[in-house]
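thread: overnight batch results

M.L. [08:02]
morning all. the overnight job finished for the chain we discussed friday. pasting input first so we're all looking at the same thing
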Amino acid sequence: MDRCSWCVNSELEIDYHDNEWGVPLHDDDKLFEFIILDGFQAGLSWKTILMKRENFRSAFDNFDYRIISNYTQDKLDVLMQDKGIIRNKLKIESAVTNARSFMEIQAKFGSFDQYIWQFTDGKTIKNSWLNHKDIPVSTKESDEMSKSLKKYGFKFVGTTICYAFMQAAGMVNDHTVNCFRYNQL
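M.L. [08:03]
and the structure it wrote out:
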C-alpha cells in the first residue's frame, strides 16, 4: 500500500497518517487540540509531538479550552516542570492566550469551525502533488489565516504553522497522488 513518504518511519506516524491527517475536521474541540499541537510543533518534528500527545492531553486538561483559558500562574509553573510535554514557556503561555482568543472567535462566529473554514470557502482544497518535497510550506490561504488569527490575539500561528494546521484538519488534501488516502479524502 502506497503512503505519503513523510509517514513511513514509524507506526505512530503511519497510524496518524492513515486515520487523522487530512480528514476534514469540523469539531471545535478537536480543532482547538490541533491548533495547540501545531503551535507546540514549531521548530520540532511532528513525530515528537505525536509521541507526547497523550502527555499533552493529560497536562492540558484534554485540551478543554474553557479550562485552559482560566489557567493560573501556578498551573503554568506546574506545566513548565512537566517532562512529558514541550517545556517552552512562550508556547505554554500561548495555549492560554489562544484558548481565550478561540472562545472570542466562537462567540463572534457561532463556532471556531465556521470561522476557520472560511479560509478555504468551506471546502477542502484538493492538491495534486507527485512528491512530498513539492508541497509548499505556506499558501495565500495560510497567510490570510495567520493574519486573521493574530488579529484575534493568537500566538504561534505563523503562516507555516497555519498551513500545517490546514493539512492536519483536512482543509487541504496534501496526500500525494500515489497515496491510498488521496482519493479516499
